[in-house]
Design a protein that fits this description.
Elements: H1 6-17, H2 25-40, H3 49-58, E1 65-67, H4 71-78, H5 82-85, E2 91-93, H6 108-119
Length: 120
């Protein structure tokens, strides 16, 4: 379910678990969003992430983030690491970006990121 848009993910989980009679996609999505803050606020960085980002920034190597997260999820995930993310000039959040029709693993988000980076 990683990389899916929230509604796609909710529909997949509901169908996979066979709970269509108990919860709608809208209800599941609403509950997910309510609990999002507590789930994401203090997420750790992946091992080596800070080192590589700082190295790439120091050597002026182009970087961008293409995340399956939506705006709210990304803000929560990245809040405690804002100084690191400020080193990356472009972020595309495919979870709620209107230009990205299909989330990961489809290439839409990556193609949109490349397109925008070329404008920079």
């Amino acid at each position: 379910v990683m990389g899916m848009k929230v509604r796609e993910c909710a529909a997949w989980i509901i169908n996979h678990e066979g709970i269509q009679e108990r919860v709608t996609v809208e209800e599941f999505t609403k509950d997910y969003m309510v609990h999002l803050d507590e789930l994401l606020r203090h997420g750790p960085l992946k091992e080596g992430a800070e080192r590589i980002v700082r190295h790439l920034a120091k050597h002026k190597i182009p970087m961008a983030i293409c995340s399956g997260s939506g705006t709210k999820e990304f803000a929560l995930k990245s809040a405690s690491h804002s100084s690191l993310w400020s080193l990356i000039p472009l972020t595309v959040l495919t979870g709620d970006d209107p230009h990205v029709k299909h989330g990961k693993p489809a290439p839409d988000g990556y193609l949109e990121t490349i397109k925008r980076y070329g404008r920079g």
